[in-house]
Specification:
heterodimer, A: alpha+beta, Cytochrome-c3 Hydrogenase, chain B, three-stranded antiparallel β-sheet, B: alpha/beta, Beta Polymerase, domain 2, five-stranded mixed β-sheet, two-stranded parallel sheet, 5 helices, 7 strands, 24% helix
Chain lengths: 371, 209
């Protein structure tokens, strides 16, 4: 028996599915990737796997309940959501937050930043196959988790923010404990920074990989560490200062190369800076009440914008109220929302083996994006 | 990027011939939040083009469908003094937006939030039911997902969007989800709960004598 001469046609590109599960984190996002050989040709993103309708839900809750609801949008930036929402409500209600509360808000946000940024760079080590480093960074991060548990009572959602201030306060004993933990974590983060700066395994997998140029970063409108690693030095804490930031020194970080390594380094440095910011805030912490004791704040009809620098970058809130007790419309945009689009540039001509590392380098937060 | 220029209101008015309603406030830290409501939604593209030249970043888009303003108290319904039939009341005019869009609870309020190096300018365009709005995606990449989300949450039509597919909501779901009352159980897709109850009912039958 002879084999008939079948026409041989080899397609130039193949489409491979990446996701929806476990691209980098255990959050679902589906990438349809066209590859030529083992090089990425085109990327299509299919979202919506964890769309929960929280924006709709927010319009059926009271303003106070929405503070609680927004904290549950995302675990890693769970202090930033209620803070931004509360700021918008305070703008409409012309509510002036007590001085002490402004500093306490900074402390809550910066402690979250330490834990969030370390988590992301730990995952980077995991994706490069450097499990020892992964476990070490997670162990360092555990000190930040201890701070959260010790000061706020929770390891993820701090429940720190309320309209008119914060829901927690620090006494001398807790401040001493907090300072002690900061003294312990600071040299460890310095060590981790050195490792990521010099280690061959990390450098080989991250230098020149997933590059986002400055022009593309501006076109995509990216924010946070992703923007700053591409030379767009935009930080809400400088550009639109809020809470106690005008009274604190916040380093302006920026790197020119826009690769995976630059983004990791920005995150590490900002985690280390966060330690210093918390120390400054503790040193300057004024006396006084930590909130206005507004059980049911009176928010008149109106609309307001608010933005904060979440661990992943600028988080924007729009709030519109009417005569009712629920918000008429709440909308927020998380940093990851634009970062997905930037992935098209970062993944252009990337190797299939680098996809997970590049996706992780935007510090993706899917539950935040899809709401 | 630059901060909000001082003469922005005049410059916007120059490219939006139908007029804008301007409001701005600067906080204690020197951060300005401004609002510009367009009288004519067709002025959106020239306004966005000007902002693009100023280096603005389209930071977010928000669509909403505000409910109709509450009716005024209807005290005039009382009988007139001379006992005559109350005169035929003229049809109450529907309140309108600054640009004349009827605010009857069906119009869409589209807010485009621009960032100018920390300052925020929100450009508002009203779209009456059945109307459409030009896409800003050709000007701003960041408008892409925002407009797709607008289109899947409301029945608002975005003209000339290069990729008008659903973004987060599955194509199988009826459009304009924000314009309907969705029971909480449906919202959270309680399919698993029904499965659970079916399972319990089955086990009960097996256990029961």
């Amino acid at each position: 028996m002879t084999t008939p001469d079948l026409p041989v046609s080899v397609p130039e590109t193949y489409t491979i599915p990446v996701g929806p599960l476990h691209v980098a984190l255990e959050e679902p996002m589906y990438f349809k990737i066209d590859v030529r050989g083992e090089t990425v040709n085109a990327v299509d993103i299919n979202a919506g796997h964890v769309h929960r309708g929280i924006e709709y839900l927010a319009t059926h809750r009271s303003i106070t309940q929405t503070v609680v609801l927004t904290e549950r949008i995302c675990s890693l930036c769970s202090a930033s959501h209620p803070e931004s929402f509360a700021m918008a409500a305070e703008t409409i209600g012309a509510i002036e937050v007590p001085e002490r509360a402004k500093f306490l808000r900074v402390i809550a946000a910066e402690v979250k930043r330490i834990a969030s940024n370390l988590f992301n760079v730990a995952i980077l080590a995991h994706l490069t196959g450097f499990e020892t480093l992964f476990m070490h960074v997670m162990q360092v991060r555990e000190i930040a988790q201890d701070i959260k548990e010790g000061v706020f009572g929770n390891r993820m959602d701090l429940g720190a923010i309320c309209i008119g201030g914060v829901r927690y306060d620090l006494d001398d004993e807790i401040i001493a404990e907090l300072r002690d933990r900061l003294d312990r974590i600071a040299p460890l983060i310095d060590e981790v920074i050195d490792t990521y700066r010099t280690n061959g395994t990390i450098l080989r997998r991250t230098r020149g990989v997933g590059v986002l140029t400055r022009e593309d970063a501006i076109a995509c409108g990216v924010v946070g560490p992703v923007a700053r690693a591409s030379g767009v030095v935009y930080d809400v804490r400088h550009a639109a200062p809020y809470a106690a930031y005008p009274e604190l020194e916040v380093a302006a970080r920026g790197l020119p190369d826009g690769d995976v390594w630059s983004r990791a380094m920005i995150r590490l440095h900002e985690a280390r800076d966060a330690v210093d910011i918390v120390r400054q805030a503790l040193a300057k912490l004024p006396e006084g009440p930590s909130n206005l004791g507004l059980e049911r704040p009176d928010i008149p009809p109106g609309q307001a914008m608010a933005k904060v620098e979440a661990p992943r970058g600028e988080l924007v809130y729009y709030l519109k109220t009417n005569d009712g007790s629920s918000p008429e419309r709440v909308k927020w945009r998380v940093p990851t929302f634009m970062n997905w689009d930037a992935l098209r540039f970062m993944l252009a001509d990337a190797k299939v083996a680098d996809i997970a590392i590049v996706v992780n380098s935007i510090d993706p937060c899917i539950s935040c994006t899809e709401r | 990027m630059t901060r909000l220029p001082k003469d922005l209101e005049a410059r916007l008015s120059a490219v939006a011939p139908s007029g804008i309603a301007w409001q701005a406030a600067t906080d204690a830290n020197g951060v300005t939040t401004a609002w510009a409501e367009l009288a004519d939604r067709n002025d959106l593209v020239p306004v966005a083009t000007l902002l693009k030249e100023l280096g603005a970043r389209l930071s977010m888009t928000t669509a909403s469908q505000p409910p109709a303003p509450p009716e005024e108290d209807e005290e005039e319904e009382e009988e007139t003094e001379d006992g005559a039939e109350p005169a035929e009341k003229p049809e109450k005019p529907v309140p309108t937006s600054f640009g004349g869009t009827p605010l009857d609870g069906t119009a869409y309020h589209l807010a485009y939030h621009f960032d100018l190096d920390g300052d925020t300018l929100t450009v508002v365009a009203w779209v009456p039911q059945g109307g459409d709005i030009a896409s800003l995606t050709p000007l701003y990449r960041t408008a892409d997902w925002g407009e797709r989300e607008m289109m899947e949450l409301y029945a608002v039509v975005v003209r000339d969007h290069p990729d008008p597919r659903r973004l987060f909501i599955d194509p199988a779901i009826e459009p304009a989800v924000f314009e309907r009352l969705i029971p909480y159980s449906t919202l959270v897709n309680a399919a698993s709960t029904k499965g659970l109850w079916d399972k319990i009912a089955k086990v009960r039958k097996e256990v029961a004598p």
